[in-house]
């Protein structure tokens, strides 16, 4: 099959490209190497794919209509996996217009061209952030997501609505995947597990927001990629699925796991809670289990150990 993976040099995207190539698929990776974090990290992420004969890397932006038009005209795609986005809850509060432009307008660009060129399957990367501070846990796909608490979350909710609109108008099959706090090798350096690991390893203070009682459903990258591949296989009509581990852990306990794996003690600096941060994320994955055969297998302890083994290797290289 022929794939276009947007944001394909990022954390999740690079792992997906690698797995698709291993399965014998042809992959075009589109990434703009945005300086949100060091672009050299993305080039390192995708390095393993670069020499594969069925892989092509295109540096470009999903807001570049001319580039996208030529890309769709010159290539046949069976599936679009749309991972490209401005990421991060807190930065979206500082720059909401940029998040709106990239995450909403960029998604519309891809949907328009997918419909024009009759692409049969469109996978959209959504986020657990759409649930806001939903009091009902675990979060189910049928729950209301009308009260996002950050511009980032609002753009992901908007993306789901827009993809449904195009499905209704043009009969393109769309699957929206709500990712729950993905972590693992190649994770973005601004994310909690990477950031805490790096600071603890260097003997520096780690910022803990509030009382450290917030809870997250951390999902190991291998489980996420398996879920994405299952969603691609079964993409028909319009669907939304949670992809998480369906387990939660308090921030304080997460820090203890990192300390144990690193064999170093954290220096804690308590800081005020941040606007836009959710109190808890917790995925009900009943629907994904039933309809996709999704069955996550990595415990958080196993995943942390895998991440830190990778982290130590990067530090040495």
Structure annotation, total helices: 11
CATH superfamily descriptor: NAD(P)-binding Rossmann-like Domain
Number of strands: 13
Q: Main beta sheet, described?
A: 7 strands, parallel
Gyration radius, in Å: 19 Å
Counting structural domains, the number is 1
Could you tell me the mean pLDDT?
A: 95
What string gives the helices and strands in order?
EHEHEHEHHEHEEHEEEHEEHEHH
Q: What spatial order of strands do you see in the largest sheet?
A: 3-2-1-4-5-6-11
CATH architecture: 3-Layer(aba) Sandwich
What is the structural class? alpha/beta
Q: Percent of residues in beta strands?
A: 15-25%
User: In angstroms, what separates the terminal alpha carbons?
Assistant: 35 Å
What proportion of the residues is helical, as a percent range? 40-55%
Low-confidence segments: none
Overall 3D form:
globular
Give the class-level CATH name: Alpha Beta
From the structure provided, what is the oligomeric state, counting identical versus distinct chains?
A: single chain
């Amino acid at each position: 099959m022929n794939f276009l993976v947007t944001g394909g040099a990022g954390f999740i995207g690079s792992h997906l490209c690698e797995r698709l190539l291993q399965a014998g698929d042809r992959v075009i990776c589109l990434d703009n190497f945005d300086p949100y974090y060091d672009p050299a990290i993305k080039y390192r992420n995708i390095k393993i794919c670069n020499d594969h004969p069925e892989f092509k890397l295109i540096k470009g932006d999903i807001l570049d209509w001319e580039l996208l038009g030529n890309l769709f005209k010159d290539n046949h795609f069976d599936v679009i996996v749309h991972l490209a986005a401005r990421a991060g809850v807190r930065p979206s509060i500082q720059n909401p217009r940029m998040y709106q432009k990239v995450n909403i307008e960029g998604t519309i660009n891809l949907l328009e061209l997918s419909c024009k060129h009759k692409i049969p399957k469109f996978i959209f990367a959504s986020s657990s952030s759409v649930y806001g501070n939903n009091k009902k846990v675990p979060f189910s796909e049928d729950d209301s997501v009308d009260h996002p608490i950050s511009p980032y979350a609002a753009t992901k909710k908007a993306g789901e609505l827009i993809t449904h609109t195009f499905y209704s108008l043009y009969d393109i099959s769309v699957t929206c995947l709500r990712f729950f706090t993905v972590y693992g090798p190649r994770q973005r350096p601004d994310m909690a597990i990477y950031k805490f690991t790096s600071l603890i390893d260097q003997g520096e203070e780690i910022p803990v927001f509030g009382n450290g009682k917030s809870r997250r459903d951390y999902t190991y990258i291998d489980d996420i990629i398996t879920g994405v591949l299952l969603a691609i296989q079964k993409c028909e009509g319009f669907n939304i699925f949670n992809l998480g581990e369906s387990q939660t852990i308090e921030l304080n306990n997460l820090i203890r796991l990192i300390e144990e794996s690193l064999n170093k003690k954290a220096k804690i600096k308590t800081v005020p809670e941040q606007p836009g941060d959710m109190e808890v994320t917790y995925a009900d994955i009943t629907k994904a289990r039933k309809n996709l055969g999704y069955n996550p297998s990595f415990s958080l302890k196993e995943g942390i150990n895998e991440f830190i083994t990778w982290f130590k290797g990067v530090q040495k290289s």
